[in-house]
């Protein structure tokens, strides 16, 4: 990089650290301030923070690689997790259900749902431990991606037997940890807002460049092979920009992408997974935004704002892929590693000044994700393990100290785990189709079946996550489909057995949970105990939510696709998508948005 680029990046790093430390005093007043900002953060700031946290470098590099290799239909592969389609469910009903508990963490929620006896405590501990494990794994995932990108940027050498990518990730994580540990959620959110502005400047610059770039009529792209090499595939502009998915693809059998050759089956599979995952809710930094929301209305608005802002990520991803193809065609050198398209475009196509600005924007994306993960992950140790079982009478000062210590341990553990992974797609596949699946079933059933208890949640989570870890150690080459099905069956069986062979949750706890949260599902024995007026109110809300999600899920997909087709200059497809988007938006307004103000008050 030039001196100007280096100064831009350095200025950004200094400024973001100062903003984080500005909130140190507010965060130190107590753990409610440290982890939830005393629930006084405005919805638009929480939504902007969520967008910045989802706009990570690792995911961006994967998604650019998929669009580059597959064409526009690569978008659909990321229904496995990268599209964040869970946001549609959070916007319509899961966000307000989560907020209504008025707790600090997903694990504390277990007390609200299952009580404070042995089964409730077991669910709380297992939930906390499993969330911390997943947080460490996600830190590793982001470390690998950030290391690949920032390693190319900073040119940090490898030493002590560790790669340059590891030390590059260590540098950026250390800086992020510095201000996150000091400032808590308020610092995380407001630095995210600043970083979000920088990200949008970056998006505008790159998309403008892509609109003026010429996409050849015929060109070649590369796909990774299982032996670590790469294979060139010729395609046409018409095929590459077509967003309509095909039933079959034709990647070579020895390609890392050959598992997607039965593309139609893969998409059906991912759609089923999205529905299960979205209906199960979320934890970690995503749930933390809703725990911090001030009302049902704020929960809905922050979700909507989050999704709209996040939709701009896909035109950016498409733009990088277009520029990568244009560069390869003009230079006569195809970019061999699809995961290196992003840094290749930055270093070969951007002029002095813009290069530094774009690098700062991508570093902002990486740091905002790290900061959210670290802050939310530490809350599970402090609130659900240390304060609950180790030191119930700990002062706020001690709790804040524990928050900072646990943040450091999570970061170090994630960095160490990252040493064992070489591909971003490898660890992302395991996270979304392996480790995360271990918790899906108990997280899903807890909302919709009154009989499920804390022991059912505990057994389902233990068996599901243990199976995921064992599979990775013993049979790492298992396909995503096989892993998902085996883990799903293991977790489901354990959840049902654990529930049936233990006593049901206390009736008063169930009544309080149901009338406060108001979920739909199999709640007849509990609902029958409520007054007729209350039952009618709950039924009306549930009907609207079920209808609304049928609009929200395709609305989010169409919203994201629209920007991509514009960048790819497929104006015919863009026109059709906009018509569909308008129709879906009208449905959302009628069944969901106009009822938001009625959903603020809770009994």
Q: What's the structural blueprint in terms of helices and strands?
A:
Blueprint: H1 3-22, H2 24-27, H3 31-36, H4 43-54, H5 57-70, H6 74-77, H7 86-100, H8 106-114, H9 118-154, H10 164-212, E1 218-224, E2 230-236, H11 237-240, H12 263-280, H13 284-291, H14 296-310, H15 313-331, H16 341-349, H17 354-390, H18 396-418, H19 424-435, H20 437-448, H21 454-474, H22 480-500, H23 507-517, H24 524-527, H25 532-567, H26 571-591
Antiparallel strand pairs: 1-2
Helix pairs in contact: 1-10, 1-17, 4-10, 4-13, 4-14, 4-17, 5-9, 5-15, 7-12, 7-14, 7-25, 8-9, 9-10, 9-17, 9-18, 9-19, 9-21, 10-15, 10-17, 10-18, 12-20, 15-16, 15-25, 17-18, 19-22, 20-21, 20-22, 21-22, 25-26
Q: Could you please describe the fold and organization of this structure?
A:
The protein has a single domain, classed as Sodium/glucose cotransporter (Up-down Bundle). The protein contains 26 helices and two strands. The protein has helices at residues 3-22, 24-27, 31-36, 43-54, 57-70, 74-77, 86-100, 106-114, 118-154, 164-212, 237-240, 263-280, 284-291, 296-310, 313-331, 341-349, 354-390, 396-418, 424-435, 437-448, 454-474, 480-500, 507-517, 524-527, 532-567, 571-591; strands at residues 218-224, 230-236. A hairpin with a 5-residue loop joins β1 and β2. α7 runs parallel beside α12, α9 crosses α18 (396-418) and α17 packs across α18. The longest helix has 49 residues, at 164-212. It is globular, with a radius of gyration of 23 Å.
